[in-house]
Amino acid sequence: MLLEAVYHRPKMNWAYAYDESTIHLRIRTKKDDVDQVFAWAGDKYAWENTQELIPMSKAFTDSMFDYWECEAKPPYRRLKYGFLLKSEAEAWWMTETGFQQERPKTPDRLFDFPFINPVDIFKAPEWVKDAVFYQIFPERFANGDPSLNPEGVLPWGGQPQRDNFFGGDLQGVIDHLDHLSELGVTGIYFTPVFEATTNHKYDTQDYMKVDPHFGDAETLKKLVDLCHERGIRVLLDAVFNHSGRTFAPFVDVREHGEQSKYKDWFHIREFPLAVKDGIPTYDAFAFEPMMPKLNTENPEVKEYLLKVAEYWIKEVGIDGWRLDVANEVDHQFWRDFRQTVKAANPEAYILGELWHEASPWLQGDQFDAVMNYPFTDAVLDFVVRGTLDAKQFAEAVGRQLTLYPLQASEVAFNLLDSHDTPRLLTLCEGNKNRMKLASLIQFTYPGTPCLYYGDEVGLDGGQDPDCRKCMEWDTSKQDRELFSFYRKLIEVRKSLPALRTGSLRFLKAEAGEPVLAFERRLGTDRVLILLNNDAAIQTVRLENQPAGVWKDAFSGRIWENRQEGLDVRLPAYGFAVLVPGE
Question: Which residue range or ranges hold the Glycosyl hydrolase family 13 catalytic domain (predicted)?
Fold first, then answer.
């Protein structure tokens, strides 16, 4: 047994309270090196009467390690624990101080989870687990009020550029809420709606004012109210890492230099403000001079931005914030942000934009979730790019799930494209079958899925700005078959609770193979998801499945296995979502 590969640490994603009576434990071992793992756990003040060996299950595996999990129900909300690792040839007890072959005589040197304090439990909004989000880029969704059009607005449907306008606005969204309801979405994520000079609005001029080209606060409140009547939650974009060049405090600094009372609102290295060799003399987003970085450690800046966060929740009733460039803002600001937002609405969803592993932000004191780009990459690498086989895909997403507490994974924001990436149909080179396969994984995977506007009707587009095309509203030009697919996909997700909150287990994911099968389980409810990522017909063979009837929740087709084991024949890029039949 390679003990050097064994890893565990208290707290973080390895030992955490899931609720007020449950602690989740995880441990890592070398791949295929350990046959059994037990958590040896009990109350430190009543060890003899409470100690038990809890079997751990191998939840996921990757190319190097196995990841084991279990849950403990401590009778007094505290836990002393160690691990027993067994293989055919040996057994080791793991304590906080190391490994030994004899069972420790006392629990003194075991790991310690001191107490489940309710205030410390990571709590994410329950409604997000059931949500299906739809991302809207307001300037390109629909022009509902031409009187708001900016100067030089172009006819709807033209070629998007970084600096052109087509007149999309909030009234346009209101006018097309029926489309969203028909599709079945229950949440909208809007890119920024506050006053700014660009079409994307990530250069905020006034955080307390809706952009006049989009409408006003009354229009936004009307939109939110109408969404709520339809059971649709609303998420706005908070750009707190940086402001725009026309933000009043930055204008003051530009005009008054070192004499400006706002000079400490920003990170200025040198006066006067200038751009030298393409780099501003002040910190900015990606060296972009029109997006100066805000000093969120400054008490005045913090007070201002936290008031913004609170205002739109209380006055307009939004249901949460998506946080732009969240990893470049200090952690203490986000801790205070969470306190402010949750005080205004305890059920508000706090979503950070991070493109990488995000453990430090997902401990329950900052974000509820992050935009799950590692998941995005894994799906695209498997289904679209073909750089991962089924086994490598299962390893990639399994490893990702072990990085965070379960609460964070249950509300992860799972996307396949956005305003920052090429559109899914374009990534799939126009192959709708691949597009559907990728979306099937997205909608049957833990977390909340998000559709980028227009994907459901066949909108394509390359890298920004091409991915920000005008929405197609001419039904004769929409791909209605694709719309029906997404509507059915959302319907299936909504009808099967296991797809939203059930556990995940891979049933078939082999090296060099294009077929994948996994199970979502919630109590006694089971859903089997099978897919064929190949241009040829494939038969998926699942061993150890009890004889019985299975129904495809997507197509309605019946599959029957008379003996133990299940064979499902899938067409090219085909799939099945199987539930036990009657």
Answer: 135-493
Residue 543 pLDDT class (50, 70, 90 cuts): confident
Find the CATH number of the domain harbouring 568.
Answer: 2.60.40.1180
Residues 345-380 pLDDT 10s: 999 999 999 999 999 999 999 999 999 999 999 999
In the numeric block, the tokens 């691990």 are attached to: 83
Question: Which position among 66, 195, 353, 417 bears the catalytic label?
Answer: 353
Active-site residue, from 62, 324, 336, 552:
324
Closest among 149, 24, 178, 29 to 91, alpha carbons compared: 29
Q: Pairing state of beta strands 98-100 and 448-452?
A: unpaired
Per the structure, how many domains does the chain have?
Answer: 4
Is the separation of the CB atoms in 132 and 231 below 8 Å?
no
**Which residue do the tokens 């403990």 mark?**
72
For 72-125, how does the pLDDT look when each residue is reduced to its tens digit (9 = 90+)?
999 999 999 999 999 999 999 999 999 999 999 999 999 999 999 999 999 999
Domain end, chosen from 98, 120, 142, is at 120
Cα separations in angstroms, 508 against 61, 305, 513, 517: 13, 48, 10, 5
102 included as an active-site residue: no
CATH code of the domain covering residue 233: 3.20.20.80
Note if 300 is an active site residue. no
